[in-house]
TrEMBL record:
InterPro entries: Epimerase_deHydtase (IPR001509), Lipid_A_modif_metabolic_enz (IPR050177), NAD(P)-bd_dom_sf (IPR036291). It comes from Siccirubricoccus soli. Residues 3-217 form the NAD-dependent epimerase/dehydratase domain. This is NAD(P)-dependent oxidoreductase. It comes from the Bacteria.
Amino acid sequence: MSQKLLRSGHQVRVLDSLRFGGQALLPLLAEPGFRFFPGDVRDPEAVARALDGVDAVVHLAAVVGDPNCAAEPELAVAVNQEASLALLRAVGKRRMVFASTCSNYGRMADTSVLATEEHELRPVSLYAETKVAVERALLEAGHTVLRFATLYGLAARTRFDLTVNQFAAEMQVLGKITVFGEQFWRPYVHVQDAAAGIALALSSPREKVAGEVFNVGATTENYRKQDIIELVQQRLRRKAEVIRVARNEDPRDYRVSFDKIATRLGFKPERTVAHGIDEVVSAFESGIFRPSEIGA
């Protein structure tokens, strides 16, 4: 995200608590337009220092995902909701783009109908509940909300708890995968395309995006887990065992339309889930990632 904005000529500041380390920031340190501010989004003084002199804010800070929020619910509310609302007040009249999630659509009553930005929000997790609460306040203040599809793909800090990355890695390295809820739908978007969506929202005329919600992804990239497994199996050089189990822990089931961002802003992702699978498989085959990356 930061590299994309720097290459576009922006001056970029990053406020980060470094909870997961700072290695992903190392390539940015030599960039003349980059400044790093160590600090926590919950700290008003740190936020004020980082905001001084800026024109726009991209708010990414969060305890991300249902499992992480369930493990630390108080922290999730403090960071995702309370600190976000405080940041909104501190931003004032500056432009703000907020990273939200298509998980807000929760469990759709009818997945034959694609969820547009006006669709009923039915959050079924603490993570989505905090995002929905902040969305309302940002939209009332005239800011921009981006509801991202589920991310995948290689990045400076690649996550292997994301469905596409996890399935590709485990089936390649372990030769097997355990899956539940294989019939449930999700949309997916590559992390680089998600960054492109943020850059596009920032570069678009303010009147086109102010007070607007945009789903970020591609309508053709809605998949069930079983579809992803089939894609991985088609692209592996080895046979992988699929272990199916019954669980009730994740009731999310939603298919999403991304027509609004395509027609209004001209957004078109460059990558597909198939590309993401190839990235991950190639990274393990080449030895860039070792089995220990997934606990093997």
